[in-house]
Structures are given as structure tokens and as C-alpha cells.
UniProtKB/TrEMBL annotation:
Keyword RNA-binding applies: no
Entry keyword annotation includes Signal: yes
Signal peptide residues on this chain, from the entry's feature table: 1-21
Source species of the chain: Chryseobacterium taichungense
Protein origin, superkingdom: Bacteria
Name the record gives this protein: Uncharacterized protein
Family annotation (Pfam families): DsrE
UniProt KW keywords: Signal
InterPro entries assigned to the protein according to its UniProt record, in alphabetical order: DsrEFH-like, Sulphur_relay_DsrE/F-like
């Protein structure tokens, strides 16, 4: 009798687990409901993989059909991220492609002072903000999505 109860209990448990495992959650991706979206991508690291990843992430967002022709992007570099905008580094071609797609490149002036980098060492298409942290705070309060891949 105890064996029968154990077998029946196990059978009920397995049936419940199988039906639970077969249930699919219904997932619906977010929908685009606004005319315009704003995203601030921030980079403060000099790592080549991180620098290339942020460029790839921006391109992916610009290609998302839900955001196509609705997305304004600002790419903000501060701290080690200044490496992305230095003429001596190999990112010009990738950045020019982003610029052609409307991405605005912005460099923190505090970083330039701290690292003793002259603006002439950066690509000509780079814009400047007094403070990277200030830019993040102000954009956040303007409702921008802040993204740090």
C-alpha cells in the first residue's frame, strides 16, 4: 500500500512538472509608440573590445526596426574612453560611419585637462561638454535612455 501511494504521488508530481515545463510564457517585445527616442551611450574605458562593442551596440540600436529613423544617439566619452576619439587610434572609419548616421560624438573636457590632451589630438567631428558626469545627469533628467554596455 505504501508503495502504491508513493507511485501515485510520484506520478502526480511528474505530471505536474511536465505540464509546468510545457507551459510557454507569452512574451511580447516592446513596441515603438513615440515619434522620437533619445539614447546616451557612455564609454569610460580604453579597452579595445569595449570600444568596438559600444560601436556595435549603437549600430544594432539604429538597425532595430522599431527605432529606425526615430532614434537620436549621443556617444559620450570620458576617462579612458577618450581613446576612442584620439586620431592616433584606429576608430576613425567606424566613427565616421556612425556620424553619417546622425550619431553625435561628445568628449568630456575634464578628461582632456586631467590627461593633458589637446583637442587637436582628437578627430575634428568630436563635440565637447564641460563634464561627462554633468552630461549624463542632465540627459537623464531630459528623459534620455542612458546606456553603458
Amino acid at each position: 500500500m505504501k508503495k502504491l501511494i508513493k507511485v501515485l504521488t510520484l506520478s502526480v508530481l511528474l505530471t505536474g512538472l511536465m505540464s509546468f515545463a510545457q507551459e510557454k510564457t507569452s512574451y511580447v517585445p516592446a513596441k515603438s509608440i513615440n515619434q522620437e527616442y533619445n539614447a546616451l551611450y557612455i564609454i569610460n574605458e580604453a579597452d579595445d573590445q569595449k570600444l568596438k562593442a559600444i560601436i556595435r551596440n549603437i549600430n544594432n540600436a539604429l538597425e532595430d526596426q522599431r527605432l529606425k529613423d526615430k532614434l537620436n544617439v549621443e556617444l559620450l566619452a570620458f576617462g579612458g574612453g577618450v581613446e576612442m576619439f584620439l586620431k592616433k587610434n584606429p576608430y576613425q572609419e567606424l566613427l565616421v560611419k556612425l556620424k553619417k548616421r546622425g550619431v553625435v560624438m561628445v568628449q568630456c573636457e575634464n578628461t582632456l585637462r586631467e590627461k593633458k590632451i589637446d583637442k587637436s589630438e582628437l578627430f575634428d567631428f568630436v563635440n565637447y561638454t564641460p563634464s561627462g558626469n554633468g552630461e549624463i545627469i542632465l540627459r537623464q533628467y531630459e528623459g534620455w535612455a542612458i546606456i553603458k554596455p
